[in-house]
Amino acid sequence: MKNETVNRRTAVKAYSLGMLGLSLPSITMAHPPKTDSWFSSAEIPEHFPNIAPEIISEVVGSSHFDLDKVKTLVDKRPELSRSVWEWRFGDFESAIGAASHVGRRDIAQYLMKMGARPTLFTFAMLGHYQVIQAAVEATPGIQEVAGPHGISLLDHAYAGERMKNSMTASEIEQLEQTIAYLKNLGNAGGPTYIEVSPEEQRKYLGNYLYGASENEGFTISVNMRKLLSLGPIGGFGGGLYKIGDNQFTYNGTPSVTLSFDIQEDIVKSLTLAEPDITITAKKVS
Fold this sequence. Notes:
Layout: H1 8-19, H2 53-62, H3 67-76, E1 84-86, E2 92-94, H4 95-101, H5 105-113, H6 120-126, H7 129-138, H8 153-159, H9 169-185, H10 198-204, E3 206-209, E4 217-222, E5 228-232, E6 238-244, E7 247-250, E8 257-263, E9 266-274, E10 277-283
Antiparallel strand pairs: 1-2, 3-4, 3-10, 4-5, 5-6, 6-7, 7-8, 8-9, 9-10
């Protein structure tokens, strides 16, 4: 009887291997499994064997502010502690990267306990001065590399002050030492961009369409960091950094630029250029 049936575990394993282009030895599948031990295609998650992207997005998004939600997701699947999400145009952010640039020591420490891979930005936020110093000495210039959303190494260290009230005297001293060290380097604060006043920001705000559908376009707004931002129509936007007359780069992504066509001080359209596509969208509101 053992050779005449395939148990549920073997059936699922066979299905999974089939998805990967592999198979079990022919003797294992010599006889088809009973139908009551086999998964129908309707029961298999859409992205199986990959984790659903909406779960990855939720982990990274929640790592900015919600420790309880992160624990709910990661306690069940510790590998989610290493989640990485691409917001847009190559702006990659890990869960621990999210916690790091907003100064959530508690979330970062929990994620590391669960297997997350800390970055130099994490160590800056936590005030691990010796790690930062060793990295800079080993790789001169690394302090100039920006983190997610174009946020500098120094700004990550400043973010570490957010939870000062729950830090020990030693932790505070280490963080202050880290900030002082990075400031003294002179170039750990990221590139210098052109300032855009609130008055100037207003002329760019609105919706821009590049297609026939009302959803085929961008919204230019102001984000939580008080920066101009670009996102899908009505959606979350990444920061725009001014690099020239009516020219911007997206969230510190070096290969993506945005320029606005202005006639008689009125914005008519924007042109977004990245290595594989250049698209112009007309301002409609």
